[in-house]
Structures are given as C-alpha cells and as structure tokens.
Amino acid sequence: MQDATFNSAFDYSLTSFNNFPSAFVTAFQIVSLEGWSPIMERLIDSWWRTPTIIAFTLLILLGGQIALNILVAVICGALDRIEIEMKEEASHAQQDDNAVAAKAYANQMRPEYAVVAMAIHDLVQSTAYKHFILFV
Questions:
Q1: pLDDT per residue as tens digits for the range 2-28
Q2: CA 59 to CA 116: how far, in whole Å?
Q3: Full-model pTM
Q4: CA atoms of 67 and 30, how far apart (whole Å)
C-alpha cells in the first residue's frame, strides 16, 4: 500500500473536509449516495482503512435514515393539511347546500329544478371534481 494524501483539488475542491461548508457538501454527497465511492477511496488512501469504512457505513446508514424520516414528515404534514382543508370544504359545502335549498324555497322553484341545482352544486363543490379539474 502506498502512502497517499487527500487531494483537495479533486472535484474542484468541493469535496473535502477542510472547512465546514465543503465538509457539509461532502457529507451530503455521501448521504445521497452520489459519487461517494471516489471520496471513500481517497480517504482510505490518505487515512486508515478500517475507521474510514466504519465512518462511511455509519454516515450512509444514519444519514439515509434521517433523510427518510424527513421525507416522511414532509409527506405526513402535507397530508394533514389536505385533510384539514377537506374538512373545511365539507363544512362550507354543508353551509352552501343549506343556502341553495333556502334560495330554491324562497324563489318557489319547482322541486325538480331545486334538486338539479343542488346536484350540480354538490358536484362542483366535491373534492373529486376539484381533483379531476387539476388532473385535466
């Protein structure tokens, strides 16, 4: 095995542990598994083999777990917001349904027109219709 040093000029000096910003970029690159093997090979050449392998294994496993937890937290937060919005829309739709029925009664509309108007209103206010419109 030859004696080597860590070359900080590799990768335009972006992947090194010389200062905090470059160490942060390097750690992110390792956690995201994008180009981590050349970094590991250079560290093995410039440092001890066993501690480097242990450090990379821990960084990849723990960093991946943390990244996965953050992703799940963001998705759960978005789903909670959507659920709250759907509940609010349902309560507004209930109030709007009452308003349409009162308007139909006040205008003395024929019952079949009131039913059609309420059915159209329910369709337009439904979340399935909104998702359909967003999809189209």
A1: 555 555 556 666 677 888 888 888 888
A2: 62
A3: 0.48
A4: 12
